[in-house]
């Protein structure tokens, strides 16, 4: 399915007519959550449903974290059980290979 024409400004770096709402669901959802207007966000929830939007958000939240920090903090209030706590990625999740192996001393006391 094609996206509504009002979404074109969100995807100005892409050939808008080639973006399919179903095939590129994760890409569309993350882009609209990060940069969409209220009307575009409402369309997102109506078209995909809250479950799919939540699933895509949590995959990013606990995974590679490609969404901007401000976007993550906003949507975690709706989708995360304990907002404000550092996300704990799954050990075998997509970000596991990129995770640091040693923990830095956060407060500089050694």
What can be said about this structure in brief?
By secondary structure, the chain is an all-alpha fold. It has four helices and no strands.
Jot down its keywords:
mainly alpha; 110 residues; 4 helices
Number of strands: 0
Strand-residue proportion = under 5%
What is the global morphology? globular
Q: Nearest-angstrom radius of gyration?
A: 16 Å
- What are the segments in which pLDDT stays under 50 over at least 5 consecutive residues? none
**Main sheet: strands, sense, barrel:** none
Annotation field: number of helices: 4
Mean pLDDT: 84
In helices, the fraction of residues equals 40-55%
One letter per element, helices H and strands E, the order comes to HHHH
The span between the termini is 57 Å
Number of domain modules: 1
> Which class of secondary structure composition applies to the elements?
mainly alpha
Describe the structure in your own words.
It is a single chain. By secondary structure, this protein is mostly helical. The chain has one domain. It has four helices and no strands. Helix 1 packs antiparallel against helix 2. The termini are far apart. The model has no long low-confidence stretch (mean pLDDT 84).
